[in-house]
Specification:
Chain lengths: 235, 235, 235, 235, 235, 235
């Protein structure tokens, strides 16, 4: 967020193509991250509040001051079905910016989940509600409504640049962002990767080794790998 | 713990009013914390060892040396039904101070749970037993029984002052302490807050926005909030 | 790992006695750790990706460069039924070294689980597969296959020295290593400890106090423990 | 860094206006950060390797794989006098990416310093050389030269978006980025702020209070601030 | 800070005896901490912004909301010569609450230094001014002036209870609090300890061992210490 | 430390060759670490208490219980001129195990410095004394003398295996261990590396690029590196 973005709400930004985003939902975070050349993964400090959720949607971005959740209320109005709210404080905060009331409001609009590099509360209620949240921590500490931030401007969340309309995929492995323009290509690459992994899985299940399936032995030998028989004093 | 408190056990301290403490049990940590003006929340590093527990009881406080759990055995005798044990080491420790045997002893006395700013072990057994623990970490590292601490003196646990007899509320969102004398007022304030939230929840569910329910639009405009239509190059 | 170990695979190292290792599986990590005089516990930052697993097996050790999982593929071939893979990067890394494909390969060989002082991914799939992993974090960040490490040389994992063939016990409380030669003695000591704890548990359940069961009162008094009745101004 | 940026070097990007950047050098990080409405501050985990340096220059950005410093060598060629190198790994890394040899090369080109969200080594030599570095940690751990990253594409460094050519100001208080287009305005705002602070400083030195200088008393009273005389039992 | 303390300033609280506090200034933090039976040490995350300062004074306590330094301005008025300002946020914050302007104001009143479990900025200027600060981090991130806290009520700072008027000793080893009433006794105990250490130092300098000076050999043998000659295969 | 090592002191272990160790002292930690193929570096959390020291000596190893420094007194007797004391607690501890009195005793025996994965205190006095310490933190928190550990058995310190008699090199960049048997080879390799770096430094100083000096351009092109001219909308 640059100085000129403070206090700005960008309305109706372009979103990644809905059909392609839905395709991404078939794949996990790990596959999508690999499919876009190991880019876009948010820091692993973001963890889901409950296991088993997997979502893919389009980002509505929110930049919030530390300990102040006012802009999340502003952002709700900018959300539509299929969106994922992505929230980043301008400096480290472990306050509980988000709870069951805001989730109720987002569910009413068809929002799929929340990604926040700060705290979240009411986790028992959010779990009952089936509204998934990926957060830095669980924290009941309350926030104020005093200062402006921004909605739908580019933000940095957990170490990654997220722009409004980018695709967000999140599951038990974490959260990955796919730039709006790359979504169709990444979806194709993920599908190709998944096909290849299915074949490898079958071979591994039958006892074949990665050394052979992927033909690694020669390159390992060239790098100098040596096999030595164990002896008692080698331990 | 001040120097003169080392080696002291205070017996039978006054406890917060039982009826009011029971009322607190109806509300979550987040609500109680808000009801007492955002005070009393222990640091979010304390996490429950399993999900779904919610307790409210009166604190028996224990100050322990690093890596030494002797005083917890001393504290057991000071506990009665409805109490919550609150344990803080005098310096950071990740040892496993508490396990299934001590829990068995506390269950026999009607103690509701444990809050400890250090490690806990036997988490599988504690889960089976249904004895909830909020701890800094899970750690099997053993402790010794060599040095004295104190029981039922004021302690600092995870950043908050806890005095014996204060009310402790703990759930999936964390742990909050309510000073003994404030318990009835906080219970009333929490009930009022819950009523208000129920009304808000209904309105949110039907699609109303916080911006309108809480009348935020004017104040946001006064602070300078601007709405800008998205353009391609704004991304 | 010393300089001369880089690029080395030690084949068929001696393993701890199978019968004794199986006995260890009856006890939890906490009991085994106590039974060997509070040694061998890996740092509590290693956490299971799902609750409820308990394993005991023999270590196949892997030293890996940061962000490079090539040697894990090399290690798979060195594993046999009853082994546990133990992986440590040479410097701190939060990359996701391990996922469902490698697990499929290990399951096919009868490997019991993985201990890794780095990241792991595909946690939903690993949970479905019933392959337990104790890791530093969950991270989808991908790794490369560029540099050599070592297999079955002594490594330091989460602060403990692990040699190939040592026994590894892991459960919800963490991970403990038992040196190969100590396994039978530790198994006996753990059994003796468990028997004693069973008797203590029965007494605690009936309301007896640790102070009396373990005869602590006299030593506490000698150390200077004082009991003081609470007064209003003592709070 | 998005997928399409891996392996890209953007040559000769526009830089922030040199005269304005030089003006920024007169002010500290704290003042510049305030002057752009509290935006742009990199996370405080970045610390200078020695005290007393203050620089302001234009960013050459580098995205590097974990544990791989190859792209820094590529970036050197893109640097010119007055630049500051800004390096971010794609996932958390504590390797020592940068040392005295690379610094020698940068000094030869007139580069002012380095900002890196990873490790740096040779700190004694860098101090002697007078080449300032702000890093996440000091670490001698070596890096490899195996994988591509990018140079002069937008990156996220310590939680902030940095684009090539943006102004970077760094001193003992940390590091702040000023977007290229905002530099002249921020320089003016910083100058105005500094003037105002000079007047305040004079008044504070003579014993006047902020309460009076900034006229806070009335607003504090409106918020409900109460003054209570101390009594013995109030402690 | 309990709910009823929010918005309260306690004026003119009793302070620890000036002569005794001055005596404490002769001793380091380590000695004072030992002299009061290893109690009162603030968490080691508080570090001095420059080396070589040692102060002892009386606490003026400030509880501040996260990211809001308004109450520090309120607190300045409550300070007098010989005081030390002790500031704790109600939840974790890494904002830069304090800088050179506030220090100028405190210096004008004879305040000796600042202890803050949050961020501090302008460290170059504070060093030039000779105003020592012990802080959680250095951070230029700005704060707001929107919400009330309290001044001169009991607070928890870096894990220790600090009451207004308690003695604070701080040096390169950290910060220790001595409860008001204990100051004379702790000063005497520290003096006695220092005398004993001086005698020990002389003996150590001449080559005597702690094993003999403190007569540890017998107790070590009783605990079971064994000496074993090194053999090649013992390594 | 395995169970059978608790309570053991190994006397007079073999030490790395004195002449070779002295040679290592010429090189920094970074060079030695590279010279032994990037192995042996202790975790970067170990930092020197003051800048500018560089030592190389032979390890006397100490395994200590958490918060108990008794074994350090036992270890002093096992030290001789040219040794470096290396101390690791069996579980994480931030207590202040070591201060000026123990340093006085070690200086009297010609010990070069201390490496400890825990806290150290009296840093002002240690600095005056010129006795360098690399520690996890500075902490005045006192320790007890109650439980046994071991001296001169293999230990894990900050993630690396250290055996008695191994060479330890420490400077502003951290700490590296060189296995006893590898010392002469590592010293030669370090000398060769330093010579090569000297030649590179000269070329860098004159403006040559690493891209050319190390002939990287072709391999970068083969990996797919592309140069793109900046355009306004590329930012």
């Amino acid at each position: 967020m640059s100085a000129s973005d403070v206090g700005v709400v960008v309305t109706d930004p372009p979103r990644a193509d809905e059909a392609s985003v839905k395709e991404l939902a078939r794949f996990g975070v790990a596959t999508v991250h690999e499919a876009q050349r190991r880019t876009g993964l948010l820091a692993p400090r973001l963890r889901p509040i409950y296991s088993g959720a997997r979502i893919a949607g389009t980002a509505v971005t929110v930049s919030v001051p530390p300990g102040d959740n006012w802009m999340i209320h502003v952002a709700v109005e900018q959300c539509r079905a299929g969106d994922v709210l992505v929230v980043a404080p301008t400096t480290r905060s472990e306050a509980g910016y988000f709870g069951e009331l805001l989730a109720t409001s987002l569910v009413a609009r068809g929002v799929l989940g929340l990604v926040i590099d700060a705290g979240c509360r009411d986790v028992a209620e959010l779990t009952d509600l089936g509204f998934p949240v990926w957060s830095r921590c669980v924290s009941a500490f309350g926030t104020v409504k005093e200062s402006l931030g921004s909605v739908n401007t580019p933000i940095t969340c957990a170490g990654q640049l997220v722009r409004p309309g980018d695709a967000i995929v999140a599951d038990d492995d974490g959260v990955v962002v796919v730039p709006l323009a790359d979504v169709p290509d990444v979806a194709s690459a993920a599908a190709a990767r998944e096909d290849k992994e299915a074949r490898t899985r079958t071979r591994y299940r039958s006892g074949e080794l990665g050394l052979d399936v992927a033909g690694m032995r020669e390159r390992l030998r060239d790098k100098g790998l040596r096999y030595i028989e164990a002896t008692e004093d080698k331990r």
